[in-house]
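[scheduler] slot 2 assigned
[scheduler] job type: sequence-to-structure, two independent chains
[scheduler] chain ordering preserved from manifest
[runner] begin chain α
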Amino acid sequence: NFHNHFYNGAHETRLSHLTSVRQGRDESVLDFVKRFREIKNRCFHLMISKRDLTDLCFAGLHPNIRERLEHYEFININQLLHKAISVE
């Protein structure tokens, strides 16, 4: 397998990186979600459900956006993204 042969793990992102991703003060929801997904895509060995991943993404949103969305249930990041953009 090409990946296992050439991959040394030096650039692998871990769950702790994902849990610490936060939306920047002047960062749009769309840009934050793109950045979150890019970091997730570097977590090669991460086993996490879509729901848990969505919860991590939600936790990284600005507090004022989280407050407006706290009564919603999100099953995936796309659903979260669309709703978050509508309250941004």
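[runner] end chain α
[runner] begin chain β
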Amino acid sequence: MHKSDKWIVIEIDGLKKILSSWVGGYLGSDEWRLSSGVEQIEEDVDFFLMKTQSGSTYKCLKKSEGFSYLSSGVYRNIKEQCEENGKSLKITSLSEKDKK
């Protein structure tokens, strides 16, 4: 199960993926990951469990939804690649459901 410091769900041509990032700390380096397609989303009080096509499960805290400095840069690169290749890209906020 993957846990991240910050995460956001993006859709590329309608396929939901999780863009997540971790702060490495003093001795480590910052990391990011783009998941395979999300197949299932389960909601709990404080988090979402998202299962992907590769079989991975991501436990994403609701309060951690959003971009880190690192993932915002990665997102800009993904956006440029999508524009160059004629693919659609959008951000899907899962926590907005709680605000309705």
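[runner] end chain β
[qc] chain β: The chain has a mean pLDDT of 90.
[scheduler] slot 2 released
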